[in-house]
């Protein structure tokens, strides 16, 4: 059928499908607000692919099917930027920031504070995107600022880069910004690389750079990259906006992802305050930032201020302390985790990395030690980012010390260790008879995202196990105040508090319970997916691997772990005992459940009377959606203490704002 001529209805359907897919891409990759399930999106995409195959004349360059198109290239062509891509001067202290503002005031002959926008400085790869009549024509790296490399075919694969602008702002327009890899995406990429014995990247920036320099754009397409716009370069056809802030808003309307943390500052104090807040937020973000950029907001003033050599006079970067440092490897311990995985842990000469003292870092596994070629006494580079455990990135100086020997037997129970064919992980196969695995499983069961038993932390678990009071999670619900208070350093009051916390945890939710079981590879999201799919515990426990594979995001490995877990007689016994000891989860009942149906809540700032997880759970139980970002679709923003940019954005959008007390009142009213 290929080559048949398309009639009008087909052409119209293709146009409609393209428009729908572009819209869904934008909602998913730019706004983080998908509005249809993945399966429905895939169906639309498949239909478009089918029609384009039948009627190739309807295929256009900006079709969502054409992100990965070009054949692998032999090399990257060098291209000249229409306007040089500048670098930034740095300020390393408040005094230097003040001097920057004073220089501006003196040059402008005006002592008033010039409004300034403050933006996170992404630790990624600067990229220039040239749009001709609203269509992406060329993408280039910064290179030396005058000439860069043409990486168009790779950048086209980044879904947050619009192939066609949603709003054509100018006949010719160059948009500049940063390509970054998310931290979570980077961790996953490195984990798969480790499992496949491939090269791992030292940090998300290197991973983004490596991904953009692929000669085969299909490889780039498989990498979790995103583009955030921060300015324009070349522009034809007159000014677009009066200020940097308005310009970013316009770029957002044209379809670009704009950093939601950008703020306007009207004094030196607010500039400093922004720095402090961003420094606090840094670890929570899913992308690396290495500081922030202050820019004079008025584009007219920017023009008057001009440039010195290769940097603008109207902008300055304020760098954060580095998150990588060198130190000495003193030794290596081997830790056995909940699932028996043995992890080598580097013991380090303590070193301050980005304001936190680091004395341990992970070496991941046996292969990683070999890849790094690291020995005891070597100088090593340590990196910490976000919530992840600090890691050894490379050897900075060889000390010629002894080699690191991986143990043959479990360091906790002496059982011979095993490494399955094709797996990088070395495991102790002893299961719950290995004290480390028993301890870790109990700790996991009581942890915050599982049964959330306040006070039952690692030290107490060790004490209770040693005293013979705890063996399986069911034993937790048999503990008595007298038994607990007889432990060393345990008073009557703490024992009573713990018993109360245990009592309160009997009422839980099914997803929490499934997560608490500690099934290999079943994290919170999978536990949620499994329970929404099967509805109740019995159905889940009886599911075959085939049935488990039908659950979204459950692959063959996870399915086999789940089936094996529930097939185990001892696991089934513990579950039975837990239920007999009074663990329960209220069944959601249709009528009371949807009091807040159709409402989208966003929680921001710190809540004082409940955790965000509790608030989220209770809102969801009443049928509300809880989203991470504010948009025009947000119904209510709940603002706790120190609420930041989400509050500002919600105010701008006219979203209803609640205090924590108002939230509690609403929850109580509907419970
Ligand atoms: N957020 C942001 N990063 N960044 C880097 N804005 C920004 N602006 C830059 C650079 C190099 O340069 C312009 C000020 C020219």
Unreliable runs: none
Largest sheet: 5 strands, mixed
Helix content: 25-40%
Lateral arrangement of strands in the main beta sheet? 2-13-10-3-9
What oligomeric state is this? single chain
Shape: globular
Name given to the CATH homologous superfamily of the largest domain? DNA ligase/mRNA capping enzyme
Q: Count the strands?
A: 22
- Broad structural category: alpha+beta
Bound molecules: ligand 5U1
CATH topology of the largest domain: D-amino Acid Aminotransferase, Chain A, domain 1
End-to-end span in angstroms? 60 Å
Give the tally of structural domains.
6
C-alpha-based Rg, rounded: 28 Å
Strand content: 15-25%
* Overall pLDDT score: 90
- Count of alpha/pi helices: 26
Description:
With 671 residues, the protein is an alpha+beta fold. The protein folds into six domains: 8-67, Helix Hairpins, CATH 1.10.287.610; 89-319, 2-Layer Sandwich (D-amino Acid Aminotransferase, Chain A, domain 1), CATH 3.30.470; 324-429, OB fold (Dihydrolipoamide Acetyltransferase, E2P) (Beta Barrel); 431-504, 5' to 3' exonuclease, C-terminal subdomain (DNA polymerase, domain 1), CATH 1.10.150.20; 510-580, 5' to 3' exonuclease, C-terminal subdomain (DNA polymerase, domain 1); 600-669, Rossmann fold. The chain is built from 26 helices and 22 strands. Strands 2-13-10-3-9 form a five-stranded mixed beta sheet. A five-stranded antiparallel beta sheet has the order 16-15-14-17-18, with no helix packed on it. A hairpin with a 5-residue loop joins strand 14 and strand 15 (342-353). The radius of gyration is 28 Å and the shape is globular. The model has no long low-confidence stretch (mean pLDDT 90). Ligand 5U1 is lined by residues 86-88, 119, 121, 126, 230-231, 293, 295, 312, 315.
């Amino acid at each position: 059928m290929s080559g048949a001529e398309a009639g009008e209805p087909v052409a119209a359907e293709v146009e409609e499908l393209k428009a729908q897919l572009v819209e869904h891409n934008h909602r998913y990759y730019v706004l983080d607000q998908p509005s249809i399930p993945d399966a429905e999106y895939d169906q639309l995409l498949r239909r478009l692919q089918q029609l384009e195959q039948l009627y190739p004349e309807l295929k256009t360059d900006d079709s969502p099917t054409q992100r990965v198109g070009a054949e692998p290239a032999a090399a990257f062509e060098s291209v000249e930027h229409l306007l040089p891509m500048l670098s930034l001067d740095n300020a390393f202290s408040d005094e230097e920031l003040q001097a920057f503002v004073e220089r501006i005031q003196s040059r402008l002959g005006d002592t008033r504070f010039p409004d300034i926008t403050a933006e996170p400085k992404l630790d990624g790869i600067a990229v220039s995107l040239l749009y001709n009549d609203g269509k992406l024509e060329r993408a280039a790296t910064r290179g030396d600022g005058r000439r860069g490399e043409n990486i168009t075919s790779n950048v086209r694969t980044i879904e947050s880069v619009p192939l066609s602008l949603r709003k054509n702002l100018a006949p010719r327009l160059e948009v500049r910004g940063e390509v970054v890899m998310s931290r979570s995406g980077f961790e996953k990429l490195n984990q798969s690389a480790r499992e496949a014995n491939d090269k791992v990247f030292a940090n998300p920036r290197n991973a983004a750079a490596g991904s953009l320099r692929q000669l085969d754009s299909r490889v780039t397409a498989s990498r979790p990259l995103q583009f955030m716009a921060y300015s324009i370069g070349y522009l034809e056809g007159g000014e677009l906006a009066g200020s940097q802030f308005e310009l970013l808003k316009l770029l957002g309307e044209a379809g670009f992802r704009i950093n939601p943390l950008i703020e306007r500052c009207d004094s030196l104090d607010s500039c400093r305050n922004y720095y402090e807040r961003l420094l606090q937020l840094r670890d929570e973000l899913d992308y690396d930032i290495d500081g922030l950029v202050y820019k004079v907001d008025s584009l007219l003033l920017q023009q008057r201020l001009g440039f010195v050599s290769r940097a603008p006079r109207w902008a300055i970067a304020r760098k954060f302390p580095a998150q990588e440092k060198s130190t000495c490897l003193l030794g290596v311990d081997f830790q056995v985790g909940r699932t028996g995985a043995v992890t080598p842990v580097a013991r380090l000469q303590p070193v301050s990395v980005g304001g936190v003292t680091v004395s341990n870092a992970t070496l991941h596994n046996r292969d990683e030690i070999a890849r790094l070629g690291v020995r005891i006494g070597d100088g090593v580079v340590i990196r910490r980012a976000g919530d992840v455990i600090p890691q050894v990135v490379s050897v900075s100086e060889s000390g010629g010390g002894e080699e690191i020997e991986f143990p043959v037997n479990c360091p906790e129970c002496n059982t011979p260790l095993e490494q399955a064919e094709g797996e990088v992980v070395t495991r102790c196969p002893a299961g719950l008879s290995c004290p480390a695995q028993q301890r870790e499983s109990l700790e996991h069961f009581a942890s915050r995202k599982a049964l959330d038993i306040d006070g039952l932390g690692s030290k107490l678990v060790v004490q209770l196990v040693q005293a013979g009071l705890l063996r399986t999670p069911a034993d937790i619900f048999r503990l008595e105040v007298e038994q607990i208070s007889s432990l060393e350093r345990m008073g009557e009051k703490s024992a009573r508090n713990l018993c109360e916390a245990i009592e309160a945890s009997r009422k839980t939710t099914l997803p929490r319970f499934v997560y608490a079981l500690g099934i290999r590879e079943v994290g919170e999201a999978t536990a949620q997916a499994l329970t929404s799919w099967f509805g109740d515990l019995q159905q889940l426990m009886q599911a075959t691997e085939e049935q488990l594979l039908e659950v979204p995001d459950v692959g063959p490995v996870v399915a086999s772990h789940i089936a094996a877990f529930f097939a185990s007689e001892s696991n089934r016994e513990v579950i039975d005992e837990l239920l007999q000891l009074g663990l329960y989860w209220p069944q959601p009942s249709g009528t009371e459940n949807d009091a807040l149906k159709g409402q989208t809540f966003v929680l921001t700032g710190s809540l004082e009377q409940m955790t965000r997880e509790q608030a989220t759970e209770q809102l969801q139980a009443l049928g509300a959606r809880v989203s991470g970002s504010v948009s025009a679709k947000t119904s209510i923003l709940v603002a706790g203490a120190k609420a930041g940019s989400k509050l500002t954005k919600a105010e701008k959008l006219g979203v209803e704002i609640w205090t924590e007390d108002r939230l509690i009142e609403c929850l109580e009213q509907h419970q």
